UniProtKB/TrEMBL annotation:
Alphabetical list of PANTHER family matching this protein: ATP/GTP PHOSPHATASE, ATP_GTP PHOSPHATASE
InterPro entries: AAA_GajA/Old/RecF-like, Bact_Antivir_Def_Nuclease, P-loop_NTPase
Span of domain Endonuclease GajA/Old nuclease/RecF-like AAA: 1-381
Biological classification of the source: Archaea, Methanobacteriati, Methanobacteriota, Methanomada group, Methanobacteria
Organism: Methanothermobacter thermautotrophicus (Methanobacterium thermoformicicum)
UniProt name for this protein: Endonuclease GajA/Old nuclease/RecF-like AAA domain-containing protein
Amino acid sequence: MKISKILLENFRAFRSSEIDVRNLNVFLGKNDQGKSSILEAMDIFFNDGKGTVKVTDDDLNKMALSGGVSEFAIGIQFENFPDPIIIDETNETSLKKECLLNKQEKLEIWKLFKKGRLSSVQIKCFHPCNDDFLRFMLTKNVNELRAFVDENNIHVEDRRKAAEMRRAIRTHYKERDGSLDLQEVKIPINDGDLKKIWDKIKIYMPVFTLVSADRENLDTDSDFQNPLKNRIKEIFQGEEEILEKLNSVSEKVYSEIMIFAERTIEEFNILMGDKINIKPSIPATSDLKWYNVYKKIGFETEDSIPMNQRGSGFRRLILLASIFARTKEDLNDNVDVVYAIEEPESSLHPSWQKKLADALIELSEKEKYQTFLTSHSPAMIRIFNTSSIKYVEKENGESRVYDFNEDIATKIIETMGLLPNIGKVVVCVEGNNDINFLLNINQNIEELKEIIDLKKEMESGILTIMPMHGGNLKDFIAKHYLKNTNVLEFHLYDKDDGSYFEDIEKVRQRKDGSYGTLTSLREIENYSPPEVLEECFNVKLASEMSSIEDWGEKNIPKLIEEKVKMKESIVKKKICNDCSKKITKDHLMEMGTWNEVKGWFEKIKEMVERCYE
């Protein structure tokens, strides 16, 4: 199950907020704006207020409290939920058939908290509400459903199955009233078959981990302060075979304890001479937390010093190491994992901050992982894609979350004090693939490197290569400032669809020394000769090229995609990142593109030399 939206009502500074989320989410903003509250709300939701964050009366929004509101609510909207659900050996049902999905056909679960404790768990859904019986039908037990079926002479194939009776009852209402009156409602899931459905849904819930900054309201010894504990949770959550064996053992123990407890009560009543209503209090198998068996699991350092007694920087390195470990291991596809990491840059050197950010990005690209971060580090946030960035700001005491756009970008730049890293000459290309292609041929074809060493000039700070369609915040910052500088710009774009022709013309007409050109071939990938790509992708391409001119106009990535069953975007990345390293001067000369390519680097050299003068 993947989180698609976080919903907050009267929680701390959030009165009513809906936050759309992705696999990677980075919350930015000044201190005390509500960033951490979002991550802590998730911890309260997944752990019922008994996890790393403990629910208190202070979590209720002050304005709501003064208005007579006594509880706050946290909702999570999920996608990729299990369907169908088998709630026992003979009763299979579907969330959609039971009308338990919201208008967007997502699973939306709400948890309400009152006086510092969980008061209710509800599902918000688009549900039939023709009358009160239909509205609350999911809370009815089998006997109540059977009585309604008998009273209304409704035919049901198997009256032992609640799901079948509910299906027949809904059909009865539809035929009687002409349609089902669907309304958005919140249904409590503590009673009836719905509790059985909820117990099944919980099995598929993501394993959630909050890595917090040290503050007084947090239990700093729990959860991901020790990454091994979280791994244990994932194992128990995702391995049904293990759980079945453990539950079998538990049920055997439970049965024996109950027999002994009942005998004890009998003997107690004999001794008392009067029957007193007492009963055993034994946790149900479903309530047991098997990972607590491994409560002492963790790391120890020199002289058996526990991890929580080491410095915060040392503990953060363990976090970094564990993230690296997760990116390299074969992941369990049976369980979803959510990391919520507050200020991951805390106590880390800037070089480690960048490595951690790269690792988190890589991890979030894996199917079963979602990551939520707060950050203040300019070194880190430059790396993240703008689509992952959300800005949190408090206005008149109320926190709000904004998706990234140009106006929000300006606020982020001003708030975070971000400055661009741009040289006196900026090479503007379409995307990161183009950057890698240019750098690779420049570094691996000696004749081009002799004209100008791009890496050397970049390291000196005089040259920058920037993707104009780059999604990273650092690229946006650079473009934001670029128009206000007097840097020289070299623009190189693909001619494939002609969309950049006007842009190139505008650059050429500036009269400030900037220059722009389109590729003579269809796009940058066409400068890779067939023999290089044949070796790189292990395919045959010679038959596809009747002439050099023909090769120059083909959609090369699409052609290869069809042959190797690899996504076109992945093919492009591989051509520019890997295959381009094998291109030689002879290849370019045979293709008739040597003078053109050489001309790109000669023009860049001319611009750089002007700046040195």
